[in-house]
Amino acid sequence: MEIWINPACSKCRSALTLLDAEGADYTVRRYLEDVPTPEEIREVLKRLGLEPWDITRTGEDIAKELGVKDWPRDEAGRERWIEALSQHPKLIQRPIITAEDGTAVVGRSEEAVRDALSR
């Protein structure tokens, strides 16, 4: 199990606390420092069953500068979103937990973290 975190994020810290309390075996990836490649983002999206716009933090300043809210949310625009997430990792929703069964969840709630633990 791997968890993509931003240490400054309270949701990330809460997820780590719960994982520790449950004795989970996991690896931490500080994705702002160890930036995911476009291929890694494609893989985690596949595991999540989501599209890149589903995990984009559109309220971030860089999102506003890029104008992502106006980008097409379709197959033709998909790679543009993935590239933006890789070039500007602050846009990636957090925390993302990859489960042992090959799936992943966005662990913003205790229920989502527990879901990842149960897989």
Description:
The chain is α+β, with helices and mostly antiparallel strands. The chain has a single domain (2-118), classed as Glutaredoxin (3-Layer(aba) Sandwich), CATH 3.40.30. It has five helices and four strands. It has helices at residues 10-21, 38-48, 61-66, 78-87, 110-118; strands at 2-5, 27-30, 96-98, 104-106. The chain has a four-stranded mixed β-sheet, with helices on both faces. Helix 1 (10-21) links the parallel strand 1 and strand 2 (27-30). Helix 1 packs across helix 5. The protein is globular and about 40 Å long. The protein starts with a strand and ends with a helix.
Question: How many alpha or pi helices?
Answer: 5
Number of separate strands = 4
Please report which band the strand proportion falls in: under 5%, 5-15%, 15-25%, 25-35%, 35-45% or over 45%.
5-15%
Major sheet details: 4 strands, mixed
Give me the Rg, rounded: 14 Å
